[in-house]
Amino acid sequence: MSKLHHEPLHADFGARVDGVDLSADVTGSLAEDILGLIDTYSFLCFPAQSMNDEALLAFTRALGEPEPEHVTLGRTGKTVYFGTVGNVSDDGTKKGNAHPNTKYQTGNQLWHADSSFRERPCSVTITHAHEVPGEGGATEFVSTRAAYARLPKDMRETIEPLKVIHDYVFSRSQVAPVDPAHAASLPPVAHRLVRKNPGTGARNYYVGSHTRSVVGWGGVESRTLIDDLMARATRREDILAHQWRAGDTVIWDNRCLLHRGTPYDANRWRRRMRQTRVAGIETGSLPG
Ligand code: OGA
Ligand code: MN
Predict the structure, then answer these.
(1) pLDDT at 239
(2) Ligand 2 centroid vs 113 CA: distance in angstroms?
(3) What is the pLDDT of residues 143-180, one digit of tens each?
(4) How distant is the alpha carbon of residue 178 from its chain centre?
(5) Predicted pLDDT at 2
């Protein structure tokens, strides 16, 4: 059992962890302890952290290999490890509701797992909240591990051998056309529908807004199965809604959780969160 003081947040998953300063040197044993908590709880909130970018990147490296942020990589070929979530520019100015970037980010209001559309999806996302809206802008989470556990046996058997196509251009075209260089950098990828946590063997299923189809299935059957799995995972009563507070550092496990943003009034409020991701160890394949 972890030495870190933690309180569960939801029946299925999630914990709040107190009494640790993540901006201090995170040693090997503390990192192991945190990785163990992630494997158990999938979502960890560390309140009242003082995390600048340098500390966030150092913490990310303590947990694994930082994942290059895909938008900058795809558009420019440059590797940066940070994403900014919310409506505040680097120069501190606020972008309102009509700003293209605010609109682009509404794509995150569809249930998804971060970077599931990459050949090697990330394991976890780490987000530190600097400024948060006084109203709205919660992020909601559900567990596809818990949803898998609720499936009837015959359905578990049906989905066990399947692969699904995750496709960023498919999902994001619903919001806005994807920049051509960015689109070319992210060809559709096939992933096992049923995944296992590499440490514990716990199973879950891997769907979300980026999931386009089931490999080898017809379009209608494919959509029906994906929609059914989505509906089973995202029942209202199974949602953990995280209302951000400035100073929260939150880690979520994209291998087995789905999340979505919820609206806030960007004309009225400032929301600024800095984000990194840890590269996963499992790879999918290009559908042949
Ligand atoms: C993300 C994300 C939703 C939100 O940061 O990966 O999907 O609440 N965010 O903005
Ligand atoms: Mn996301």
Answers:
(1) 98
(2) 6
(3) 999 999 999 999 999 999 999 999 999 999 988 899 99
(4) 20
(5) 77
Which residue has the least CA distance to atom 9 on ligand 1?
261
Percentage with pLDDT > 70 across the chain: 99
pTM of full prediction above 0.90:
yes
Strand 257-261 relative to strand 139-143, pairing: antiparallel
Residues having CB within 6 Å of any atom of ligand 1: 85, 108, 114, 125, 127, 139, 259, 261, 275
Amino acid in the structure at residue 30: L
Q: Can you tell me whether residue 6 is helix, strand or coil?
A: strand
111 Cβ contact partners less than 8 Å away, ≥ 6 residues apart: 142, 208, 209, 230, 233, 234, 258, 259, 260
Dihedral, CA atoms, 37, 42, 46, 51, nearest 10 degrees?
100
Write down the pLDDT at residue 287.
Answer: 64
In Å, how far are 150, 167, 201, 223, 258 from 39, measured between CA atoms? 19, 26, 10, 30, 15
Structure tokens at 198: 């590499």
Query: Which residue ranges form the domains of the chain, and what is each CATH number?
Result: 5-279 (3.60.130.10)
User: What atom in ligand 1 is closest to the CA of residue 105?
Assistant: 10
Q: How many CB atoms lie within 10 A of CB 98?
A: 9
Instruction: For strands 83-86 and 240-242, give the pairing.
Output: unpaired
Strand partners, 241: 140
Q: What distance in Å separates the CA atoms of residue 155 and residue 142, rounded to the nearest whole number?
A: 20
